[in-house]
Amino acid sequence: MWIFWLALPLLVFIGPLEHPEFRSLALTGFTLTGWLLALIFFVLVLRQKTRRRAIPRLLFLSFVLALWFGFGFHWGVRLHLLVYQSDYQAKLAAISQAQPDKTHADICGEKCRIVSATPLLVYFHFSHGFLNWVDLVFDDSNQLHTKSRDELREFDLYLYRVEPLPSSSWNIGYFGD
Q: pTM score, two decimals?
């Protein structure tokens, strides 16, 4: 069970998921399962006989959950971008070379949203939850992450935060109702 629980986020971030809704459910399931395991280990700690084996497990679980809440999603997005950056670059090349008569729906379909052609600004759907979602944002001007929350709201009503990724034009965009 430990291996599956620890491998789930890697599979979710690295796996080629076609449905961003599933990614959000799987990550929520990972968090809830972690809390359930913590509760089980806490109960085992309270029992006298299994205390020595349960305490290290509880400490390890607490460490993993603390890392998950602090950095897990950001690291997962970076890992996903590392694995699939060539696919995203191919899509960006197709967008920039598209004929003017092609609509955005013809180029992206449901997988991305072209906000601006010059400078190129594209949202790639990544993880969709209830009333909030996270997209990979390609910003050719590299100025989106410098805007305040109010400026982001004027730019896109649902966008409330942008975190830059180490690669120059990629960002994590946080959206919500």
A: 0.71
